[in-house]
Amino acid sequence: MPRAEVAGSYQELSEDVERVSENPAEERGGEMGVHEDASSVILPDSELGTSAPSLRFSKTCLKNVFSVILLFIYLLLMAVAVFLVYQTISDFREKLKHPVMSVSYKEVSLYDAPGIAFYPGKAQLLSCKHHYYDHIPPLVNPGQQGKIECSTWRINYTDPFTNQTMKYALVVQGPRDVKKKELVFLQFHLNETDQDFSAIDYLLFSSFQEFINSPEKAEFMKDCESSYSSWKFSGGFRTWVKMSLVKTKEEDGSETVEFKQETSVVNYIDQRTKPRSDQLFFVVFEWKDPFIQTVQDIITANPWNMIALLCGIFLALFKAADFAKLSVKWMIKIRKRHLKRRSQAMNHIS
């Protein structure tokens, strides 16, 4: 019985060997099918590998676009900085050519007494007196010689414009105390005149004390007449002159003085009993206010401000240029790295 079972097993084994030897092609085909199935399973992994570089490429492209935008922005800022430099220099030159006039006021309680030079001609000074607080007492004996209570000086000098005509001037000390409203009241008398209109010329100069201290008073008066303007007051009226002082500083540092005047005229009512052919002149001098006006030209362009602004602009230019340089280098580096990775990926796929 055991011998029969062994013989049957041997027979089945021999049949299997013969079957395999008869179909070797089919078995190889099955193995190839297994390999093909394995390759078909690995293919999605390779596709995932190729999608990752494409994602990296899109990020790199976005970075490059952003860098280019930044580069253009900084180039625009550089252009604006260059324009600001040009505009700053142009404004500075324009302000140097056209200084601004500055006006300041200085309050004083006492002025330096001005000098008042009268050119009376044939007229005669009858009275001169200082009063305060704008109060002038009624006239006593108008047309008659009165008291002269002012500092006066009579001087003759040659006309500075013709150098031939001799001129006679009566110099009187002007008011000083502006707080007490000091004024000088003068009365002139003219007996007869061959002119159609009667008037007396006068001029104002800055300091009566300078005139007194001057050793050459004739030359001093010639200089005053050349430098200051002259005015007139008419007969038959009381002329009230309110003065204000203006000092002007020149570019060379010198200072000039000018008087501004406000004049009011009041008619004189002659109450003398007998009709007369003579002419009376009345004039009052007073300071308008306690402020001395100073005028000077000021250059508003500050060179230190311009230098600081230019330094800031040039620093921004250098920083922008440095950033642009680094941005270009970084873009070139990223581009080379991308090309290198792309070539490596192509070699790996191949």
TrEMBL record:
It comes from Aythya fuligula. GO terms for molecular function: chloride channel activity. It comes from the Eukaryota. Residues 16-33 have a biased composition (Basic and acidic residues). Belongs to the proton-activated chloride channel family. It is a multi-pass membrane protein. This is Proton-activated chloride channel. It holds the Pfam family TMEM206. One of its GO terms (cellular component) is chloride channel complex.
